[in-house]
């Protein structure tokens, strides 16, 4: 019985890796203004959006249904443009013991960039499906953020 797994998607983007990563590392509160599937993000615990001990509360849509969860940022590696987000509570804990999103924004040698999302999860039991709906969500989120940044809105 395998309960743990990993899903990965990698997408090319039109904006620079630096600009894309900045939105997630220091302007995370803007995601709700850019992505139609993110209904709301609010500071649940902490005084500032970028405090290390903050907890965010997300309301979002996956597979046509509204979901909620909490998030903490476990790691931000500015040099390698990599962040790890731990999701818990809300709908997440109904299905998963562990649920992490890892964002990597990668500069390519030809001057282009890609966004790599990795989902690491552990299901609460074998009857739970892998979080495949999350891959569609992350693909759409990536496209929405990229389009917003390309337009020069930020």
Automatic annotation (TrEMBL):
InterPro entries in UniProt = Bet_v_I/MLP, MLP-like, START-like_dom_sf
Report domain Bet v I/Major latex protein positions.
Answer: 2-152
- Biological process terms in GO annotation: defense response
Q: Which domain of life is it from?
A: Eukaryota
What the record says about family reads: Belongs to the MLP family.
What is the recorded name of this protein? Bet v I/Major latex protein domain-containing protein
């Amino acid at each position: 019985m395998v309960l743990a797994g990993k899903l990965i998607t990698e997408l090319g983007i039109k904006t620079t890796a630096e600009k894309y990563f900045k939105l997630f590392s220091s302007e995370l509160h803007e995601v709700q203004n850019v992505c139609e599937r993110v209904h709301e993000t609010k500071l649940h615990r902490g005084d500032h959006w970028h405090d290390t001990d903050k907890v965010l509360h997300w309301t979002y849509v996956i597979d046509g249904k509204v979901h909620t969860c909490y998030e903490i940022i476990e790691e931000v590696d500015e040099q390698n443009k990599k962040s790890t987000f731990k999701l818990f509570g809300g709908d997440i804990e109904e299905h998963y013991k562990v649920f992490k999103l890892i964002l990597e924004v990668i500069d390519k040698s030809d001057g282009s960039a890609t966004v790599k999302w990795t989902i690491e999860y552990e299901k609460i039991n074998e009857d739970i499906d892998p979080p495949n709906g999350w891959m569609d969500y992350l693909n759409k989120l990536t496209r929405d953020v990229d389009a917003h940044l390309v337009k020069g809105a930020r």
